[in-house]
Amino acid sequence: MDKAAIFHHPESEMGYLTKQNKYCVRLRTRHGDFARIRVIYGAPCAEALRNIEGNTWAFDQLEMTKYLVNGEFDYWEALLPVSSKHRIKYAFRLLDATDGEYLYGENALKIFNLQNVAQMRGFITPYLNKCSQKISNDWAQKTVWYRVMPDRFANGDETSDPKGADDWNNDPMKASLFGGDLQGIIDHLDHLQKLGFNGLYLTPVFSAYSGHKFDTIDFFQVDKNFGTKETLKKLVEAVHNRGMHVMMDICCDHLSDFSLEWQDVRHYSERSSYAKWFLIDKYPVRYIPSDIPDYAKMLTYEAVDDNPHQPRLNFENAEVQDMFSNVFRYWTRNFGIDAWCLNNADELPDSFKRRLKDELRLLDPSVMLVSKGRLKANDGSENVLDVVFSNSYSCEIVDAFTKGDVTPIDLSDSQVQTASKRRSSAIPCDILEFDAPDTVRLIDACGGNEELLRSLLAFSFMQIQAPCFLYGTEDLLSVKAEEKDENSGEQPFLNASQSPSLQPTMKWEKEKQNATMTRFVSRLTAIRRKYIDILTKGSFEWGQCSNKTGFITFTRRLGKQQLFCCFNLGYGSIRIVTPKNAKLLLSQNLMEKDSRLGKQGFVIVEM
Fold it and tell me: How far apart are CA 362 and CA 387, in angstroms?
């Protein structure tokens, strides 16, 4: 028995109030150390004492379920009945395979007997109220997200095109503007719906200098090249009329150096009304340029990754917090935005995020706040916001399928670790994103291998979290390094992780679309939505995984319903036998007559 592996942290993802007014408690133990675990619980007050062979604590018992397993740890879970009028004291009764019994309470492990129970210092639940519940949005659990960069998606209104807009079929350079707009998205909502997506995720639409708009100048204006506020409202209404939802990107940690606030600081230095809005070390604000336009040396102010064009905001300043509070409330109240993705949210004060959540919930109880951070801890740590991007797990999946750096067993361990650090009700709303405007395209990560891409996508759609798709993945949009244009003097970017400006435009000509991939994506989303209860509410049970042959199996289970999944990440075929009564939902490289699954093959069956 490994005593150090036994762990419980109350008032965290290991102890919290659920929507059903029950208190979820979790315990971690070393894999295989214990056969059964029970929670013992009762009132902590003196009246709960009674005389049974001496004073002991009057308690009830509840069997715990082993809800997660990997090669290192077992994770146990139980739901305690609670009341808002009383606290509850609880501890854990652990039974090993040799009938040895132990008592674990407040980090102390002892032999289980009535005397130790009477003297035990257990864990205590707080007085419970609705405020301590994490709200879980049912609509978010059922969403499959499609992410769009308006400038690169479709041009629906040429009157709003930027001056000197690039030809739509040109390869993008860093300063490219193509003229895509909000009307173009409206015109192609049927495309999203036919593919089966029910969530539209927009990169920033606010006034900005670049094509990607992450360098916001004015948060209260729609960028003129994208259309007007009326166009945005028309888009949101059109999305809602299709039973879909809208999420918008926003970067709260910085402003563009073209913003009026920063220009005022440049002009008036410390006398500026906005001087305390930014993190300035020395006046006047200066930097030494480098050969890379978005990187500078010896800045006299703090900037995002030393990008002189993105001065960081001072969130200790009340005026900055008030400004963003007004921004969020304005767009939510007047335009019906369903969700907000806060980029670099892990760098914002928790006090501001709590304030923001409380204010927006008064406007719309179902609005969702999503945390997208750069720190890996953000994937698992309890966040004051509703939802997180499971970035670390996404990277593990991509590496397992495309590089082989992550073994099948490592991948299963990563999934368990991710799930163990989040509340059960939160995980189905969390988002799995595999390519984004600032990363390489997924087809490029797969080396152009369509079968590998389909296998990776099928795996992701069988996870608990909500999948997120970047526009054009269904048509195998690719980012390619271009030679330097000697006439423009512009330096090419080697991959999209260096700049979202390199993302290509959507190809709408039928001959440039990939019909096979489009049908596959439609089938995937149909399976996801049909079996959404199993995938978001059911258990995730890892089966056989082999590092030697490179295969992965797992089962998604809810009551009597089961989905069995097998993926071959190895270099050769593997033997697979599916039950005769199983219903084949989707497969690739399955040789049924030979009962074998080929390289990059997968099979998803309903049992």
Answer: 18
Average pLDDT of span 215-237: 98
Q: Of 109-123, 225-239, 331-345, which gets the smallest average pLDDT?
A: 109-123
CB 24 within 8 A of CB 79: yes
Continuous H helices in 137-180: 138-141, 150-153
Q: Is 496 left (phi over 0), alpha (psi -120 to 50) or beta?
A: alpha
Q: Which of 148, 244, 262 is nearest to 204 (CA)?
A: 148
DSSP 581-592: TPEEEEEEEEET
- CB-side exposure of 30: number of CA atoms within 13 Å? 7
pTM over 0.85: yes
Q: Name the phi and psi angles at 146, rounded to 5.
A: -125, 115
Of the CATH numbers 3.55.50.30, 3.30.750.80, 1.10.3720.10, 2.60.40.1180, which one belongs to the domain with range 538-606? 2.60.40.1180
Structure confidence at residue 46 as a pLDDT band (50, 70, 90) = very low
Q: Are 585 and 607 in contact (CB under 8 A)?
A: no
Amino acid sitting at position 114: L
pLDDT above 60 for 493: no
As a whole number of angstroms, the distance between CA 594 and CA 521 comes to: 27
Q: pLDDT-based confidence at 486, cuts 50/70/90?
A: very low
CATH number for the region 138-253+315-532 comes to 3.20.20.80
Angstrom distance (rounded) from CA 596 to CA 103: 49
Stretch 525-535: mean pLDDT:
97
Locate 600 and state its tokens. Answer: 């990059």
The reply to whether 3-132 and 138-253+315-532 are identical in fold is no
Is residue 205 a contact partner of residue 222, using CB atoms and an 8 Å limit?
A: yes
- Tens of pLDDT along 115-127? 888 888 889 887 7
Alpha carbon 465 to chain centroid distance?
7
CATH number of 3-132: 2.60.40.10
Taking only the tens place, the pLDDT of each residue in 543-593 is 999 999 999 999 999 999 999 999 999 999 999 988 778 999 999 999 988
Domain boundaries, the chain: 3-132, 138-253+315-532, 254-314, 538-606
